[in-house]
Design a protein that fits this description.
By secondary structure, the chain is mainly α. The protein has 14 helices and no strands.
Length: 225
């Protein structure tokens, strides 16, 4: 009843946009089985809120990050990607460190890989306003590392932060200076990757820092024994 009366019948009316946004954030399953024209209208409504959320807090149900998390939970990854893929991609780009999203990625491998791609890009960015927020968020992201990252991805993130530190990003420099002590899981995973795949790891280090040997990198950056 709510789906038909609110989502399908009123999604064209701007006066109902806030109510629809809240409903999606509270229960993403409300979008199941929408007619094609309603999907288009809801998609436009969601996209409009990505860069101008009604609330800055990601824990509020009207925030795009909470909406996406609710949709993953209520619809499943395949439906989210099929019907609202552009919205999902935009939210992952705009709010890549939001806990509501991270909490829902266990059964969403494609979205998880998209998100990790954003992390890898942001970690090594030469733009301080991109690299610093990643480094600042890294201790919280560390709580999700085992669920979200492979060992290789963790190793690449460490390399990325060191690259950003070389560019001069303040937060990345701080994370580097402490040898990634505030991200113990990422550090452990990176060291494990280097031990399991030394040739591949050495190649990644050489590509990022020509002339630097793997052993020296692990000693200098991760305080390896």
């Amino acid at each position: 009843m709510i789906r038909r009366k609110l989502i399908e019948d009123q999604s064209h009316d701007a006066d109902y946009a806030g109510w629809i946004a809240r409903t999606i954030g509270a229960n993403g399953a409300i979008l199941k089985g929408l007619k094609a024209d309603a999907v288009l209208r809801v998609r436009a409504l969601l996209m409009a809120g990505v860069d101008a959320p009604a609330s800055r807090s990601v824990s509020v149900i009207i925030h795009p990050a909470t909406q996406l998390a609710s949709m993953i939970d209520g619809l499943g990854e395949s439906t989210v990607l099929a019907d609202f893929g552009a919205f999902a991609e935009a939210v992952l780009q705009r709010y890549p460190y939001a806990a509501p999203i991270l909490d829902e990625l266990g059964d969403a491998p494609k979205l998880r890989e998209q998100l990790v791609g954003v992390w890898l890009k942001n970690a090594r960015s030469s733009q301080f306003d991109t690299a610093n927020p990643f480094a600042q968020a890294a201790p919280q992201l560390d709580d999700y590392a085992k669920a979200v990252l492979s060992d290789e991805q963790a190793f690449r993130l460490v390399i990325g932060v060191v690259e950003a530190a070389d560019w001069g990003a303040r937060r990345a420099k701080a994370l580097r200076a402490e040898s990634f002590a505030s991200t113990p899981t990422i550090r452990e995973m990176a060291l494990r990757q280097a031990e399991k795949k030394p040739k591949a790891s050495a190649a990644l280090v050489e590509k990022a820092f020509p002339g630097t040997k793997l052993v020296a990198f692990l000693t200098d950056e991760l305080d390896a024994d």
